[in-house]
């Protein structure tokens, strides 16, 4: 009997130093059919993502992780590394910058929200997080997937174009010679009637 192909759920990494908040976000994400991993600090999130201390500069591409991460949702206020610091680290990493990042905060401070969005956050949620917020996550994941697919296609097209461009010069030269011969034939036809008239006179 053939196995039925099931769609792999999107994997979200949730970062929050508060245990009750972590439990809440985990429950909401699972209710919305996401696969969830929770950690309690920004440094643990980076470790999970394969991005360690700056001294070691070890970086693992998101697709090479044991479990690929499709989106990161992090609290803003955390001891040590804040959600904003974590966001900056992710966006500075060439291997992780395409992962969508959502920031959560219990404080509605416009300057903080704008700063996070300017730094590359895809969304800013105010706590308490609600189930309705979960519906806003999937579009960001799909958008990042499309972006990756677009970059991949562009790369393939550029390879094809470089192959085609190497063939173009010969084609152009042959078409030019054909058009030149046509031009010569046309001028010959234009001259002939004049010469025949001269003979009759």
Automatic annotation (TrEMBL):
Residues 11-142 form the Response regulatory domain. GO terms for biological process: cytokinin-activated signaling pathway; phosphorelay signal transduction system. Residues 148-201 are annotated as: Disordered. Residues 171-180 have a biased composition (Low complexity). Belongs to the ARR family. Type-A subfamily. The modification 4-aspartylphosphate is found at residue 75. Residues 157-170 have a biased composition (Polar residues). Functions as a response regulator involved in His-to-Asp phosphorelay signal transduction system. Phosphorylation of the Asp residue in the receiver domain activates the ability of the protein to promote the transcription of target genes. Type-A response regulators seem to act as negative regulators of the cytokinin signaling. This is Response regulatory domain-containing protein. The lineage of its organism: Eukaryota, Viridiplantae, Streptophyta, Embryophyta, Tracheophyta. Keywords: Cytokinin signaling pathway, Phosphoprotein, Transcription, Transcription regulation, Two-component regulatory system. Transmembrane segments: none annotated. PROSITE patterns: RESPONSE_REGULATORY.
């Amino acid at each position: 009997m053939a196995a039925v192909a099931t769609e792999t759920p999107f994997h979200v990494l949730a970062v929050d130093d508060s245990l009750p908040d972590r439990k809440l976000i985990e429950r909401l994400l699972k209710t919305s059919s996401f696969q969830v991993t929770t950690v309690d600090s920004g440094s643990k999130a980076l470790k999970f993502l394969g991005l360690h201390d700056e001294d070691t500069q070890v970086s693992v591409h998101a697709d090479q992780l044991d479990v690929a991460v499709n989106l990161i949702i992090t609290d803003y206020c955390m001891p040590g590394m804040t959600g904003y610091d974590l966001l900056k680290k992710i966006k500075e990493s060439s291997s992780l910058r395409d992962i969508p990042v959502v920031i959560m905060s219990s404080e509605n401070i416009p300057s903080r929200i704008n700063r996070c969005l300017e730094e590359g956050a895809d969304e800013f949620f105010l706590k308490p997080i609600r189930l309705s917020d979960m519906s806003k996550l999937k579009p960001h994941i799909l958008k990042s997937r499309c972006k990756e697919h677009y970059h991949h296609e562009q790369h393939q097209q550029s390879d094809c174009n470089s192959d085609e461009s190497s063939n173009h010069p010969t084609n152009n030269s042959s078409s030019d010679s054909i058009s030149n011969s046509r031009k010569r034939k046309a001028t010959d036809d234009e001259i002939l009637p004049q010469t025949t008239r001269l003979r009759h006179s």
